[in-house]
Amino acid sequence: MQNGGRTAIACALAWLIPGAGHLYLGKKAKSIIFFAVVTLTFFFGLAMDGRVYLASPEQPLSYLATFANLGVGPLDLIGRQLSYERIIFRVPDEMDRALYGEVLDRTRRRILVPTHEYGTTFILTAGLMNILLILDVFDIGVGRKA
Q: Is the distance from CB of 138 to CB of 11 less than 8 angstroms?
């Protein structure tokens, strides 16, 4: 397979499972450490009642936070299920009052927990770390880094 194809596969693996891209490129020790750091950071964030962000037109920066959450790949789906008991990526329209109210209530309950801000920060950090690791895999794959 061409070097570009190998790099693309490594980047996709790095997004799907933290550390998997490094493992694919032969960096076994790094891959284990990166998997542990990103995954534990994410789950510690959830354990501290952190929540994943929902995109909202009223809060433009929420799009950036939602993107950061997506950095952990499929783990983000677990975070959404645990945060809102459904897989949802944006704040529901107020027209759907039942769903809007349910999401708002779940968010309010989490916000009242003293560790919420720390947990949410851990979750965001896990996503941003994994994005950096995907970029690291890309650099290794194209030969910019050993």
A: yes
DSSP at 27: -
Q: Which two tokens stand for residue 4?
A: 């570009």
Residue with tokens 């450490």: 33
In the predicted model, is pLDDT for residue 27 greater than 60?
Answer: yes
Contact 93/28 with Cβ under 8 angstroms? no
* Number of Cβ atoms within 10 Å of the Cβ of 44: 17
Q: Which of 94, 92, 50 is nearest to 68 (CA)?
A: 50
In total, the chain counts a number of residues equal to: 146
The pTM score is 0.91
Report DSSP letters for 39-107, one per residue.
Answer: HHHHHHHHHTT-----BBTTBTTHHHHHHHHHTTTTHHHHHHHHHHSS---BPPPTTSHHHHHHHHHHH
At 141, list the tokens.
């794959």
Q: In this predicted model, what pLDDT tens digit does every residue of 40-97 receive, in sequence order?
A: 999 999 999 999 999 999 999 999 999 999 999 999 999 999 999 999 999 998 778 8
